[in-house]
């Protein structure tokens, strides 16, 4: 890779985390797929040679268990979901160059060869480990079917990850006090021989890799803590029948008992073959279009091409729950086998619904098919998901917020400018260009928008890609309003023609720059402009060329969403949730939701643990404190002066807070829940006599108070200044 600004001379591969073939997609899942599609399209607008690939993650225990419950083979079960995903993504204008799956022949062959290369390079070894076993049900338990206590922080954890505590990856046999999640029985550990990848040997390499890594800051900072704590070698085989067989070798004890057997009785851990699908899917793309169109080896293999000796530009777009896999295990595998390391990892936040977590068990979600069935166009949702907050921040979806963004920005700003400009041009002029050239002022403003677009791509900001367009449309509205061409058309026809030519030039630039965010609407605008070919085939240079086609009569690109429609949508959602909760009560238990797609790989899987509905608010405490106890709390008004992230901490910020008498450093878990740049100047309520604590090497001297899981900051209604005591 080059690490030069895009576009570069090396081929780029943009990937999205593989959806786990185990359930319906909702709009939370779509966030990284839309983000990846936006980013790959934006690279292509810059003229970057780009392949956009992904695939379905077919393996893992949940697929096998659910297939058995449905009475079908795991392959058939997973393929059914794969086919549904492959049909759903294009409906949201997510257009992969190749969408494969982990169980196909290509990925099986590529995975087994890469594992052989690891073995031949001396990076694999055998080790006797303790595997959880349910003695009552007489079965071994893959890691996602074990729960217990994290050995590092003491929190409740699942078998492969401390998901409720320190977030560490856990190896088989590490979890304490194991229990079977299938039966609830206490589990015991039994010795088995498994294969390990010596990740610990790559600690120095990975530290340097994180220094080079581009993308979102959480993808760089979160893994540093794991390296500093000491990397554990990685068990890459599992006691299962469903998966890619370990590729041969010497005999080992069978993981299912019965004496000696070949290594192929072990299957590879799902996190081995899942990221390798990125390579396999790119290879399938080359097999289809030819190496002259895109050379997968030049992108993925160091030294495979004289023209690209260091490989291509690899960009992974994922959910933040799978950062560790993409910044520790995966780059170590690539380095060990002379493959190209990732240039960037873009790790998204999750999507919540009306301030609460998505819950598939309670049907508390906006499903992908449901959104389309309601008659909504996909591009407004793409715009909402791409531009509503920074990519690594959580995004809250509500029908009210969706309505407001569509009506204000897409209809009121972008759509309003385009329709009024093109309608005036169509009615008053025969065709374009209306004037000889774009005015210097407008040409400079279009150049500025292109520069903003290019900077957004190199900053890995899909939000800024959209902002470049809305800012240009906002300027266009201001330009046409102050120029008033309708007053000039009779008395100053040349001046009027120049203004309208400029507006059509802005419209053409919007079509080009908006293509990554709203590809279908941009293509429709391109046709209204009478331009040749497809907007999907042009680069940003076309935005500078000015209008040249015959203008068609325009139609409005975006439709207003009425309040009554939102009310009806909310009523439907509430009715679904109530029905699902009634079903849960009848069944006696709720299905647990997982952030990371069960045992497989996910992108932004927002099936987060159920958050309480308003009817489930925690009851008020019966334990009372005296007025004197309350008086001992020194609660003050503060004003945030500075806010910055803490290296190695995914959620924490270092705040400098003015408390009137002094300015203190306070550590607060706000990084994923607030726009960091917006925090300075915010008034907050601070518990000033909280005990000091050291977090990630920073001494915290106080506590900022906030409400709920979304950290709604407490503030003042009027003008109480810093240092004012709360009584």
Characterization of the model:
By secondary structure, the chain is an alpha+beta fold. Helix content is 37%, strand content 17%. It is built from 19 helices and 29 strands. Strand 21 and strand 22 form a beta hairpin. Helix 4 packs across helix 7, helix 14 (462-483) packs antiparallel against helix 16 and helix 16 (493-514) packs antiparallel against helix 17. It is globular. Residues 249-264 and 588-619 have low confidence and may be disordered. One of its GO terms (molecular function) is ATP binding.
Helix and strand arrangement:
Layout: E1 12-16, H1 30-45, E2 50-56, H2 61-70, H3 74-88, E3 98-101, H4 105-120, E4 124-134, E5 139-140, E6 146-149, E7 156-158, E8 176-180, E9 188-197, H5 203-212, E10 214-215, H6 217-229, E11 234-235, E12 237-238, E13 252-253, E14 260-261, E15 267-268, H7 270-289, H8 296-300, E16 313-319, H9 323-336, E17 344-348, E18 351-353, E19 356-357, H10 368-373, H11 378-387, E20 395-397, H12 399-428, H13 440-458, H14 462-483, H15 485-488, H16 493-514, H17 519-528, H18 563-587, H19 627-631, E21 635-645, E22 653-658, E23 663-668, E24 683-687, E25 693-695, E26 698-700, E27 703-704, E28 706-707, E29 712-713
Parallel strand pairs: 1-2, 1-16, 2-3, 10-17, 16-17, 18-20
Antiparallel strand pairs: 4-5, 4-9, 6-7, 6-8, 9-11, 12-15, 13-14, 18-19, 21-22, 21-24, 22-23, 24-27, 25-26, 28-29
Describe the structure using short key phrases.
727 residues; Isoleucyl-tRNA Synthetase, Domain 1; OB fold (Dihydrolipoamide Acetyltransferase, E2P); 19 helices; 37% helix; EC 6.1.1.10; RNA-binding; aa-tRNA-synth_I_CS
